[in-house]
Write a structure and sequence with these properties.
Layout (H helix, E strand, L loop, with lengths): L1 E3 L6 H16 L18 H12 L4 H17 L2 E3 L6 H17 L5 H12 L6 H13 L6 H14 L4 H13 L6 H11 L7 H15 L2 H16 L6 H13 L5 H11 L2 H4 L4 H13 L7 H10 L6 H10 L4 H12 L7 H13 L15 H12 L6 H12 L16 H17 L1
Antiparallel strand pairs: 1-2
Helix pairs in contact: 1-2, 2-3, 5-7, 6-8, 7-9, 9-10, 12-13, 12-15, 15-16, 15-17, 17-18, 17-19, 19-21, 21-22
């Protein structure tokens, strides 16, 4: 509704209005049966002026015409005020309405439209979990229709909305494998950026994406892009967080690029206890891996050593495996982490167990080979017990990884003979392949 501004009534008009109102209020007849003179009615500006002119009775016909003309001019100039929307209209009216419509009709949208919806909704401060879950489930159901560009578009928004949906990211991972040839170098950088945050669960994907990225960067055009990005990373170093800087040097190290300038700047920040107080074990392990790989561990050893020791109880299996590969000589530290993780061995999934085993072997956290007929030590026995109990649940490629790992470990290769009998076929096949490969080389 709109309001029309009109002039205030003069004395005669006001008196007439009071009389009409008083007469209507004193009448006891129903409104429909009252005389016309007594029925309340809303006077429009024109009638109001006319009634006032008749009530005044002193004006002439000329003055009445002049007043009517003046009133029309004033009405033409009157300001129309539109009713404003309430401040919470978007949050409490528009957004809930859109969410309701999307929940009911999400199944009709194409993959490209799902990407657009996800990008827009991920930017909302307050999100409805039911819609985020529905988007995730719809992406899983429609994944066969997603092209390479759709995967890149939706990865970031889904990480914001459903970062803990393991099934979603596994489905996207499988689709990435199928579309591997359709991605550009920048696409692979985007994939690495998201899956790095879930690196403990997607080692295989990262191991396949990184070689592809290296191959693409070997081309002049892509290397030209990289050479443009690196100076920009240096220029904006002060504008990004320490975590972003760590990710940058990690990405460059993965590409076999050692950037001494960035390594020194990150090392300086790592010596600042204020900046490192919120670092997670995952990033600590990543830092150790980067600086050891770049032969620059001395730059951060003094600052990172005490920090890793103080958070040993918070390390997960993936962090432990990476730390063991980076710092295999830190036996006491790795042994402490391994002992703490072993307390939850029975609740580990197969992926976590494989990472834990990798860390134990690289860090030499298991006991030496028992002599004579002695039983294996506690740590070794617990691992063999897990393997025997879960032997039917391990996949073929997982059995191959265990055989490879133990076979190439001088200290623990005897454990290959301790593996379950049900694995013999896969074990012998793997060992034959290793021998054949060694002979050919």
């Amino acid at each position: 509704p709109s309001l029309i501004t009109m002039p205030a009534p003069n004395a005669a008009q006001a008196a007439l209005l009071r009389r009409l109102t008083s007469s209507c209020s004193r009448s006891r007849l129903p409104a429909a049966k009252r005389p016309l003179a007594l029925r309340p009615r809303v006077l429009c500006p024109a009638n109001f002026v006319a009634c006032g002119q008749r009530g005044a009775s002193t004006g002439s016909s000329g003055s009445a015409e002049a007043a009517a003309s003046s009133q029309e001019d004033e009405r033409a100039k009157a300001v129309v005020l539109s009713k404003r929307l309430p401040e919470d209209f978007i949050e409490n009216t528009l957004l809930p309405h859109l969410e309701s419509q999307l929940l009911d009709n999400i199944h009709v949208y194409s993959p490209a439209e799902l990407c657009q919806i996800s990008r827009a909704y991920s930017k909302q401060v307050v999100r409805q979990y039911a819609l985020c879950k529905k988007l995730s489930d719809t992406v899983k159901f429609r994944i066969d229709g997603f092209e390479a560009i759709d995967i890149i578009d939706i990865l970031g928004p889904m990480w914001i909305m459903m970062p803990d949906d393991d099934e979603l990211f596994e489905v996207l991972e499988k689709r990435i494998y199928l579309k591997m040839e359709d991605f550009t170098a920048l696409n692979f950088m985007g994939i690495i950026r998201i899956y790095n945050k879930r690196s403990s669960k997607h080692h295989e994907l990262l191991s396949k994406v990184l070689p592809k990225l290296r191959g693409l960067l070997a081309n002049y055009e892509d290397m030209d892009i990289l050479m443009t990005l690196v100076p920009e990373i240096e220029r904006r170093y002060g504008e990004v967080s320490l975590v972003h800087s760590i990710n940058n040097v990690w990405a460059l190290t993965q590409l076999k690029m050692v950037h001494q300038g960035l390594l020194k700047r990150v090392a300086e920040d790592l010596s600042n206890t204020t900046r490192t107080k919120d670092l997670t074990p995952g990033y600590m392990a990543r830092i150790a891996w980067v600086y050891r790989r770049c032969n620059a561990w001395d730059l951060v050893a003094d600052s990172m050593g005490p920090l890793i020791w103080s958070t040993a109880a918070e390390f997960r299996c993936g962090d432990f495996a990476r730390l063991a590969q980076a710092l295999p000589e830190e036996r006491q530290l790795l042994g402490r982490i391994a002992d703490l993780l072993r307390m939850g061995l029975q609740e580990m999934g197969r992926k976590d167990f494989l990472l834990y085993l990798l860390g134990c072997v690289h860090g030499e956290c298991l006991e030496k080979r028992p002599e004579g007929g002695q039983e294996p030590g506690e740590a070794t026995a617990s691992l063999l017990g897990y393997i025997r109990e879960e032997q039917d649940n391990f996949k073929r490629d997982e059995v191959q990884k265990i055989v490879y790992l133990l076979h190439f470990s001088p200290k623990y290769n005897y454990l290959v003979d301790e593996l379950p009998a049900s694995w013999n076929a896969t074990k012998e096949e793997t060992l034959d392949f290793i021998r054949a490969k060694g002979a050919s080389s």
